[in-house]
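Good morning,

Attaching, inline, the backbone tokens for the sequence recovery test we're adding to the shared suite. The designed sequence is right after.
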């Protein structure tokens, strides 16, 4: 076992209705933050953690994602002919050599747990990662999936990444019960999906990064849909933790919920200000507003 994670699953079948009309024909994961689509940030994080197999759980309107990670033959030929070498490198480095993309369809919107279950037949490893591309986490030096992989390597536990949220926001997330934290992690005693603030076990919310034992698949197969008609990964984790160690991990990094417009704008501003080419000018312009 090493501190890397070979396979990462990206559940990307959601319709992205919160971003209409932008997402009418463009998958929300293809919306760019500064100069890269959201899904590429997620893929770069997975690759940094050692992933060589990327599994995209997609839907009917998501072909642009597969195109993005495919070779763009005409574009590359054109750029090579015009000796635009820098741009050619940008186009070619979207996916590093040795990394394979696999696509599986989630034909019905039956929830995140169901989406992950759709990837079951493509996972051979004992543990795998899950990244929800909506949750963009800025930590170039130490991507969150690397942090989770190290924690898994040290403890053997499945890991869910968590962050503190204000009580009014707990009903948007999975919320963990992990009363004894040591450093950045605490063993999970419970986890609930989108509780009312008065029922929440804590204010530690699950952010979109998981490193899960493959035993979760058998559990997901037995997990009933909730009152929304969805099979929740949260419910399956609640079952897993009865027999196997699962840890909550408070990651290092700034998280942006790009599933909503405010978070998306905040990510755009933060990463825009850090851009090597125009970050300084952009920051100055913002100050002058
Ligand atoms: C999903 C999970 C939730 C988690 C959240 C993180 O919810 O079900 O437990 O906290 O992602 O972004 P969704 O945002 O799909 O409603």
């Amino acid at each position: 076992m090493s501190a890397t994670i070979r396979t990462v699953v990206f559940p990307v079948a959601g319709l992205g209705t919160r971003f209409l009309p932008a997402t009418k024909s463009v998958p929300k994961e293809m919306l760019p933050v500064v100069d890269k689509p959201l899904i590429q940030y997620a893929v770069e994080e997975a690759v940094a953690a050692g992933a060589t197999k990327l599994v995209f759980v997609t839907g009917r309107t998501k072909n642009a994602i597969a195109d993005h990670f495919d070779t763009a033959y005409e574009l590359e030929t054109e750029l090579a002919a015009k000796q635009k070498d820098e741009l050619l490198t940008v186009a070619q480095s979207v996916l590093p050599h040795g990394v394979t993309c696999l696509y599986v369809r989630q034909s019905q919107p039956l929830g995140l747990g169901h989406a992950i279950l759709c990837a079951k037949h493509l996972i051979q490893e004992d543990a795998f990662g899950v990244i929800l591309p909506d949750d963009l986490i800025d930590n170039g030096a130490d991507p969150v999936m690397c942090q989770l992989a190290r924690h898994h390597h040290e403890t053997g536990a499945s890991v869910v990444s968590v962050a503190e949220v204000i009580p009014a926001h707990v009903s948007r997330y999975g919320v963990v019960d992990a009363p004894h934290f040591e450093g950045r992690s605490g063993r999970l005693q419970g986890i609930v999906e989108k509780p009312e603030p008065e029922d929440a076990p804590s204010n530690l919310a699950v952010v979109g990064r998981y490193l899960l034992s493959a035993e979760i698949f058998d559990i997901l197969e037995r997990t009933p849909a909730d009152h929304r008609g969805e099979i929740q990964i949260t419910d399956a984790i609640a079952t897993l933790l009865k027999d196997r160690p699962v840890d909550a991990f408070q990651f290092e990094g700034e998280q942006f919920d790009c599933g909503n417009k405010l978070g998306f704008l905040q990510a755009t501003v933060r990463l825009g200000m850090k851009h090597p080419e125009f970050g300084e000018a952009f920051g100055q312009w913002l100050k002058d507003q």
